[in-house]
Amino acid sequence: MSSKTNPNNAEKRPTPPEGLPKANNKPDLTRMRKAMSWRAIDTPAYRYILLVTVATLLALLVTPSLFSTTPSYDDQMLNQVATSDIRSPADLNIEDLAATEKKREEVERSTHPIYDYHPQLSNEIQVRIDEAFSAARTRLYEFILHQVVEPEIASTKPKSTENKIDPNAPAAENNPEELAGIRQQKLKEIADNIETYIGKINRNKTLAKDLKSHVLLAHNDFNKTIQAVVPESNYLDLFNNHFSIELSNALKSMIGDVMSRKIINEKELMERGEDGLITIRIVDNASKKTAQYDQRDLSGILDLKEVNRSLWRYTTILSDLGNRQRELLLRVGAKLVQPNLAYNRNLTIEHRRHAREAVKAMFIPIKKGEVIIRDGMRFEQRHLVILRAIENEIASTNPLLSLLAYFIFFFLVLYSLIFFASRNIRKFKPEAKDYTAIAFLTLLFILMVKAVSVVANALDVVLPSLSIEAYYLAIPVAAGGAMVRIMCNSETAYVFIALISLLFGMLTNNPVFMSTYALVTSLIAADAVGQCRTRATLFLAGMRASLVAMLMVLFHSMVQGNLVEMSFLHLLLAAFISGMATGLVLTGMTPVIEFIFNYTTDIKLLELANLNHPLLKKLIVQAPGTYHHSILVGSLVEAAAESIHANPLLARVAAYYHDIGKVKNPLYFAENQREGQNPHDTLNPNMSVLILLSHVKEGAELARKHNLGEKITWIIQQHHGTNLIRFFHHKALEMHEKGDIKAVDERDFRYPGPKPQTLEAGLVMLADSVEAATRSLNEPTPERVQGTVQRVINMIFRDEQLNECELTLKDLHLIARSFTQILIGIYHNRPVYPGSKQQEKPQDARSNPQPPAQTHPDIDDVEDTDDKDIKRLGMH
User: Fold this and answer.
1) What are the DSSP E strand ranges found in 346-491?
2) Which uninterrupted H or E stretch holds 731?
3) pTM score of the predicted model
């Protein structure tokens, strides 16, 4: 009671509304006992703690194998019976080492062995034959020249002639050209008569022995030149045939014909490809170019054993030679023939290595939740391969490191969403309560997805034909976004939907489609509950989400091409169930969230709009004038709210309860006084002002006591702003001039505020003052009503009471027009019925000589206010 007698104890600065710094007032102990004081913990520290907590819990929920252990699977389990279903813990690509190695071996076997073919080798051997035989003949002819021809020439010349041909003499001493000509002539003569000269030598045993020794000295040079080991006996046989050109040509012809075919060392040891092919690589040393082709028929390839038979065939063809010569060519040719086809082992190994490396590792794609082996099945090798790979994959990953990685990921996602929205989305201004509710809904959603995953894995044994994807599609994923839209606003809902869509995609088997599915259905459901006036709206939101979900499934199935399969019907049914479940969840969870977090939703506002509410019933009994005034204010603000796109329901309900504090002392307010009875006549102005100020504080306390919600409570506290109670302020000034009271401080005659912070609070302030002012008009003609509306709004605007809400001059113009239309309809002229007299309108309590409780602008003040700033408000 002391607060009613001492103006200094009046509450000057009540708790500020949501989103503003707290005023320096004492804590409201009554409210703190009634519910959690969210504003007391709405600090940056609490938000960061909540952010870290949510990121940690999300990381714990999604980190695989954090608390689970994987059994070991070895070869001993082969052919044993599985005692339960075993599923994959995550999406994995398991390398099938056995299949990969098998494929590489197949590719390696199918890679043809490479053989180098040297077709020019025959020509090289023939060139060496020419060189070796030519050198041997030259050596034979030189011996004959020096040992037979020159001595014969010397013996036929006169003794006085001292000069003789010296082929070894320097060219300067003997005429080089002449000596060369003579030498060539003699050598040709020797070649033409080789048999004669050999006969002469054979008749001289000493000379014959010297010739043989001389020829044998060139045996090694002959072998080196011909690059073959020709036995001495065969070499001497060639010598006996004088290394003749005919023999040389026959040998070359035989070698060239035989080596025109491909010859290999041992045909039986030839390596072939898996399909019987070999790759022949033609090597051309002259041009340094290679070409290759595959050959399957190997019958044309000879080995060294088959070469001898071919050589015998050619010796029979050489009929111009004698038998001994043909045998000699056979023996020498066998020494000269070389394989022109050789297995290139290094190149084959390299090609096979490249072929192996070109084979990509074969993976077994395993989806999260996919059944690897079912209960009662025997373990096969492929099961053990997959299970061991999963075991190795999990063992190679540090769970704590994965947990840290997921925590960093979720922290960055949450922080970036909040950071961007706070800086760029104008209406995104959630508080501690909103962040806590969003965190609660997020974790609840993740738990629901996890629970559905467990149920899906359990039912998959009974219903294997129903895919896991169908279970996820049936989750009411759109309920979260719609609920945030109901509790907060559309901007906050958009941010929440983006987060939920990302998380939903991460937890399912088809991230891209599932994220899009959650995003689209959530946006549709959130839009449907924008104006939630009835419970049926929640169900209709689920229906809309269901329709869109089915269209999304149809699109996905068209892309996948499974419209004619039974799985399409399963997915379609799951999408339909998702929408229906969304409506049910919204209907059941909305009251729970309202109660836990003390939200004031449109549905709760509809309940509060019921005129049978205990507070309104109390108001109509104890303060009927205030009740009537509140109903009229509600009609005014509802129409004005619709014109400026505010919340009409919130504005109307707030107007119903804005003066409920007057039930404490109803007779101190003019609308509840009887004519001639004014309790303020016996009070000084300070005490009267204290009583008027108390109705705001007491109204807020009654609102909290009856759980009207913060939105209504804040509007009750803001609906007078910091307005000046002009009547009692003037009265105090007059008394001060007479010396009845001391100095007058204007601040003691102003409401403590705060000023209106929202569109709805500003509307209630304007409608409250306008309705009171127009009700005081003696002759409420349309012109006077319009002028009064303009002046009242102008006065409030000039007093800077609307500086902290979002009302614009355009809004004020629309508000004034709406107020004027409603008030003219209320105060229209009524016709005089026959037999009745036109009675004068009784004066309102406000027209008393001393108005008792001016809680609104005095009509005289309104009419005298300078309206030059916005005087045309509401005019067409």
Assistant:
1) 363-366, 371-373
2) helix 726-738
3) 0.62
